[in-house]
Amino acid sequence: MEKSFKNLVKSDYPYLCGSKLLLAVSGGVDSVVLAHLCHTAKLDFAIAHCNFNLRGDESDGDEKFVVDLADFLEVEVYTESFDTLQYAENNGLSVQMAARELRYEWFSELSNSAQFDYTLTAHHANDNLETFLINLIRGTGPEGLTGIKKDSNKVIRPLLEFKRSEIEDFARKKNYKWREDSSNSSDKYMRNKIRHNIVPVLEEINPHFLDSFAKTQQHLQESLDLVEDYISLLYPKLVQKVTYGYAIDIGFLKKVPNQKQVLYQLLKSFGFTEWNDVYNLLDAQTGKMVLSDSHRLIKDRNKLLLTEHQENSVGKEYSLEREEDLVMIPELGTFHFNETDKLGAASKSCIYVPEHKLKFPLVIRKWKKGDYFYPFGMNGRKKLSDFFKDEKFSLPEKEHVWILCSDNEIVWIINHRADNRFAVEENDGRILKICIS
Amino acid sequence: MEKSFKNLVKSDYPYLCGSKLLLAVSGGVDSVVLAHLCHTAKLDFAIAHCNFNLRGDESDGDEKFVVDLADFLEVEVYTESFDTLQYAENNGLSVQMAARELRYEWFSELSNSAQFDYTLTAHHANDNLETFLINLIRGTGPEGLTGIKKDSNKVIRPLLEFKRSEIEDFARKKNYKWREDSSNSSDKYMRNKIRHNIVPVLEEINPHFLDSFAKTQQHLQESLDLVEDYISLLYPKLVQKVTYGYAIDIGFLKKVPNQKQVLYQLLKSFGFTEWNDVYNLLDAQTGKMVLSDSHRLIKDRNKLLLTEHQENSVGKEYSLEREEDLVMIPELGTFHFNETDKLGAASKSCIYVPEHKLKFPLVIRKWKKGDYFYPFGMNGRKKLSDFFKDEKFSLPEKEHVWILCSDNEIVWIINHRADNRFAVEENDGRILKICIS
User: Fold this and answer.
1) Would you say residue B378 has pLDDT above 90?
2) With contacts defined as CB-CB under 8 Å, which chain A residues touch B230?
3) Do B204 and A193 touch (CB under 8 A)?
4) Chain A residue with minimum CA distance to B234
5) Taking CB atoms and an 8 Å limit, are A142 and B256 in contact across chains?
6) Which residues are noted in the entry as ATP-binding (chains A, B) (predicted)?
């Protein structure tokens, strides 16, 4: 196994040589073997061990074991102690998920602060098979059937093609010491059922099962790669970057076969769960929307708009004193107030207002239902909602509208339209130029 | 179950009503239940039963049982007796594969001759799961993971969403009689292992496993549908119909991501097994090829040519007597010999030859190594192999070349070039126009 590990590093992971590696070591046989293999292969690595404090003295024993191993191998060791149960409770997670999150978060911090190039974990072929079967049993998308990645986000799993039995045989042959995990979590319970009751039957029927399974997964991954290629090909025709997110062209989507599945592929990483509602949006009225934890998908005429959830700033107000030349509004940008004598060309981001018509303090706030104004260049008054409708504002665009008010009268729909009441007339005297950037 | 079957027919298979159906009935509980359900739903069906003669008296008992069932349901019954073992031996098949081939072949014949619209089989959710697991255990492409199709090639499987236990419970509740299959074939052995040792553990871990499995398979199928869409999109740019098959444009293929996988998708139904050899063809020398049982893939400059295996007609000869006006050559077409006085324009499919220069009988044969001729319009002689090289013939094109000879001299490379020695000169007298169509 030493030899095949060295060959593997040479052929598949040549970049590990000369890199600074962080090895995740629990103390179990897999990670202990990986540590020894890295040592023999003369890789430059340190060891990281998480103490999840889930098994009292045993957890502390694991930690001590790993520290001693690092000492023996003469490599640096990092340990961290977590209150996993508390974290799980606080975040509504299972203990397994909590441990997973804590582990990867800490590894990531450690990698950054101590400048490791890669993190190595000791996942092997049986872990991969068990994960496949767990996903299969629970129900999964195609991604859940393709297994643990050999290499993703700077986490490398160089033992992924070795079987548990090979690793254990090797450890015994070498007289390595390791720690047995006595935990009996529900995830572990499922893994044990799979490990002891299912996998042996699969291997009894086909003694080369793990090898053929690797090929099966590879074929599946290759097919899914083509799905990615297809979506990449459609993407520029289907999706357009717009001010507050992305717009999906429904007209184009409807010309593509299997439109629902294409939509699923486009949106799968945005946390939506109610897929039938998503599909129904295609034929829904403008304004209908479907929410995920992080995003909204909004029907807007012949588009689906994908935007992040907007922090609700309705009711928020900023007050502007005359004295200030420059005011920062976090949601909007910077206001500049300049006195001027000559009237320049107005634009979406600049207006000219006679100073004497403004009553300070001015107020900057989100628009609200019932607001109306007198559009610049027109005599009549108009509801803001009607203005938005005429201008074909999408919902996210409407939500991002702020207004500048003077004594409860709208001076400016910021970035969109000035109010006629505040237009500069003859003999208006000093003029204020208000710009946003 | 009667009600849900009726609803299912209404919603998913409305075309079954009013169609003429052929029901495959083995005598086992699944097909017996399907027969009763079709009867209750007043569908228009006949029963077909294959006697594979694999279990002696038991097989005959099954046949009698099915005939009696048809009698009881007052529907027509077709039975056929097969020497399955002999067929398996003759065709180098496993007994299961032999039975499968014989069954589908006979159903197909029966459907055609007795004009059935659809064939119905009683495959259910557990069959589907078992097939998935068998494929998984043996190793499979992604298609092998998506399961038995509800509807393919006019074969419908309306019980596919019902579980074995539901079907058996229903049969017992209704007091139906059926036959138990005592066979113990290797396929059955594997199925039994899966049925009794694996599936119960899966269902113990997740009591709703079969439902979530159906969704998992559906998601996978949807992804594979996108792969098909992608390949369809690339197809017109990648593949061109040529005279003896199809040409794949290597230049275009190399611009596409995951080119090997795209090539696999294009070629997967042509029986190739040595995929690395196929992929290596992309950078191989012109003339290299990879064979499947039915096809050849040949590197030809910047193309891969896919052709069916050519029946080898090297050595085959046809002899032409002068007297015949019209000669059929199966591999080539029809020869027409016409005496003429005036010289017309020669073409690829017609030549003009002075009658006195020909020595009968003429011979039509495949070209062979060492053949040479005097290209029309030139004085020198040329090897046919050089001629083909200059004309950039692909291997299949070369293989399809026949020549017309007179006294061992080449008169015509049929469909390509005449020989200068047989060109019409002044005072040549009677001219023969030889055409092929």
Assistant:
1) no
2) 226-227, 229-230, 233
3) yes
4) A230
5) no
6) 26-31
Rounded CA separation A8/A2 (Å): 10
Whole-angstrom CA distances from B98 to B92, B112, B133, B148, B359 are 9, 21, 21, 19, 55
Decide if A296 contacts A306 (C-beta within 8 A): yes
Mean pLDDT of B261-276: 90
- Nearest Cβ partner of A139 from B142, B215, B264? B215
A185 pLDDT band, cuts 50/70/90, is: low
Interchain pair A136, B215: CB under 8 A: no
Beta-strand relationship, B333-340 and B431-436: antiparallel
Contacts of residue B137, defined as CB under 8 A and 6 or more positions apart, other chains included, come to A202, A205, A206, A209, A212, B190, B194
Residue A58 has pLDDT above 80, yes or no: yes
Instruction: State yes or no: pLDDT of B326 exceeds 80.
Output: no
Given an 8 Å threshold on Cβ–Cβ distance, is A226 in contact with B145? no
ipTM of the complex in this document = 0.77
A392 half-sphere exposure, CB direction, 13 A CA radius: 5
Size of interface A-B (CB pairs under 8 A): 125
The secondary structure of A305-340, three-state, reads: EEEECCCCCCCCEEEECCCCCEEEECCCEEEEEEEE
In chain A, whose CA is at the least distance from the CA of B187? Answer: A205
Annotated binding site of A for ATP: 26-31
Out of B137, B206, B224, name the one closest to residue A202 (CB): B137
Residue B327 has pLDDT above 80, yes or no: no
> What pLDDT, on a 0 to 100 scale, did the predictor assign at position B185?
64
Judged by a CB distance cut-off of 8 A, whether residue B275 touches chain A is no
* Residue A200 contacts B where some CB pair is shorter than 8 Å: no
Nearest to B258 among A220, A225, A261 (CB): A225
Quick one: pLDDT at residue A284?
95
pLDDT at A40: 94
Domains and CATH numbers, chain A: 2-205 (3.40.50.620), 221-308 (3.30.465.60), 317-436 (no CATH)
Token readout for B386 is 């050089």
Q: For residue B156, what is the enclosing H or E element?
A: strand B155-156
pLDDT at A331 over 90: no
The token duo for A31 is 């990670």
Q: Do A230 and B229 touch (CB under 8 A)?
A: yes
- For the cut 90, the answer to whether the pLDDT of residue B195 exceeds it is yes
Spatial separation of the C-alpha atoms in residues A77 and A47, rounded to whole Å = 5
Range 225-254 of A in CB contact (< 8 A) with B: 225-227, 229-233
pLDDT at site B313: 64
pLDDT at B220: 94
What pLDDT, on the 0 to 100 scale, is given for residue B396? 82
Local confidence band at A313 (pLDDT 50, 70, 90 cut-offs): low
Q: How far apart are CA B256 and CA A228, in angstroms?
A: 12
Given a cut of 90, is residue B263 above it in pLDDT?
yes
Nearest to B257 among A209, A211, A229 (CB): A229
Query: How far is residue B226 from each of residues A227, A229, A231, measured CA to CA in Å?
Result: 6, 10, 9
* B34-46: b (≥16 Cβ within 10 Å) or e: bbbbbbebebebb
The rounded percent of chain B whose pLDDT value lies above 90 is 59
Q: For A139, which of B194, B216, B262 is closest by C-beta distance?
A: B216
Which residues of chain A lie closer than 8 angstroms to B227, CB-CB? 223, 226-227, 230
